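Fold it.
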Amino acid sequence: MLIVGEVHTGLLRGRGPMRASDAALLVDLVAGEPVLRLDRPRAYVRSPDRPVGVDCPLGAAASARQVRGIGTVLQRAAVVGGHIVQGTAWAALTPATGSAREPWSHYLARPGVIEAVGRARPAELADAFAAPARDPAALDLGEIAGRASDVVQSAVPADGRPRERLRLPRTRLRFVIEQAETPGPPRLTVHDDQLRVLRVALPAGIEPRRLVAFGEDLALHDWLLTSVNSLVERAELGILPFDESLRRLRPAVQHLLHLWLPGRRSDLARDLWEQVERRDALSDQWKLLRDRIRDLVALAAVDARSNQGEPAR
């Protein structure tokens, strides 16, 4: 089995933060199905999984061989901390038992499973999904994930001004999880300002939803790191006047710094996060950024107290 998916992460529109009760209404994508809501260790609401039918090439071709995928992708959306929206699409790829297309009732009975019709080699499929450039005709999990995020964004009521000076791009994390007798550490590759690809080999038998949850958690913290780093760059410390740099950093302090909390969803997520840390040191990068911002805020506070003590001119 091969588990593939993509997570889109971005800033929730509005003046925020969104209350959990209101966020739950935004992600209520499936009528009659309950929305998951957690208040600790931070606010988190997530829609039920919604199956999306697909019948298209999978993007792996060798010689004249083309592999076709038929089945359902699971789509969902979440709001984290009242500030961040995520859209996710994922599926497990398995070989089809025959070359004939089954009735849709057969595929709907297996939500989140895509059957690969053709001489599908797992390594070829994994390489195809991990490639930064995909065949336009092939299965596009990013489009399905982005659609979930867009539905949530469009439902945000326009009841106030947007966050001051906080414009941050959406990132995309694509994950490819292979089953192997010999597990391998996660490999996170940053391709550009938006696309990241995670590949990992794990033993068979792990519940796919636990792996998808780790992909969402990694995507969230990669977006936080990318966004805060972007805000620090925009602040142009040491170039712009002190007050202007501080003003440009204020949104990071108000909306983002308190949301860093990786690897808390499960023991599996904690173990995988620690393996990512050994190679990519994301938390160390975060601490450097956080401390730099806090030092600047502390200097501003000292400066303000000093000015208050000066005699009037």
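Residues 2-206 form one domain.
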